[in-house]
Amino acid sequence: MGVRVLVLEDEAAIADFVVRGLREEGFAVDAATDGLSAWHALVESDWDLVVLDRLLPGIDGLQILKRLREKGIKAPVLFLTARDAVADRVAGLNAGADDYLCKPFAFEELLARVHALTRRDGSRAGTLVEYAGVSVDLATQRAARDGAALDLTVREQALLLFFLRHPDQVLSKTRLYEQVWDERYDGTSNTLEVHVMSLRRALEAHGPRLVHTLRGRGYRFGKESGNASGRCFGASAPYWNA
Predict the structure, then answer these.
(1) What is the mean pLDDT for each group of 10 consecutive residues in the chain (242 residues)?
(2) CATH code of the domain containing 201
(3) Which of 77, 78, 88, 212 is a plausible cystine mate for 83, CB 3.0–4.6 Å?
(4) Which string of DSSP letters, residue by residue, matches 144-189?
(5) Is the pTM of this model over 0.90?
C-alpha cells in the first residue's frame, strides 16, 4: 500500500491543503479533525507517519503525542504548531515528536520533512509499491519498469500508484477520478484518457501493455492473460485504446 500518512488537523483549509498535496505526491492519506477521532484513528490502524496539530479540540495534540509514545507506538510524528516559542517546540520534541513545523508553512517544506521522516523510519522495501516489474519508490519519488526509469508527471505517477495498488482489478472512470483527482467524474471530461495514454507511452517504451481499456467499464492494470488476443481475462469485451 505504500506510505500511509495520518493528518490530524482541525482547521479545514489547512487539512484539505495538506491532504490533497500529499495525495498528489502519491501518499495514502487519511485525516481526522478532533482529538477523540484522532486517537481512535491512531490506535486502530498502523501509520508510517503522523502529521499532528498542536491545538486539537477534545484531546490536545500534545497529550495525544504523549499517549502515543506511552502506548509504544513508534510512528514518526511531524508536529504542527502555531506557537513558535522555543519552549513550545521543546515541549513537542520532549513529548516524542520527531520534527516540528511552525504555521504558516509552505507545502514544499512540509513535503521535504515528510520525505526525510519516512526515509529515516523505514527500509526501502517499506516504501516500494511494485507489481509486474513496475515500481514507485515513495521515499525517493522514482518510478521504474524493469529497472528503467520512467519520466512521469506528478499526476501520471499518482495514477500509476493507484493502478499498482489495485492490480488486475476493473477500475471505473468514476473511481479513478474520485481517488486520483479527488473530484467527481462529469461524464464528459477526457482528462483521464489523456493521462492514461501518456502513462502507456512511458510504460510501453520498456515492455508490453499493462494498462488495458475495458469498454464501458474502465481500466485494468496487469499482464494480458493467455486468452485469445483482444480479450479481457475470460470476458467478452475487447481491449480498446483510451
Answers:
(1) 83 92 85 92 89 90 91 90 74 88 89 84 60 86 93 89 90 87 80 95 97 94 63 35 43
(2) 1.10.10.10
(3) 88
(4) EETTEEE---HHHHHHHHHHHHSTT--B-HHHHIIIIISS---S--
(5) no
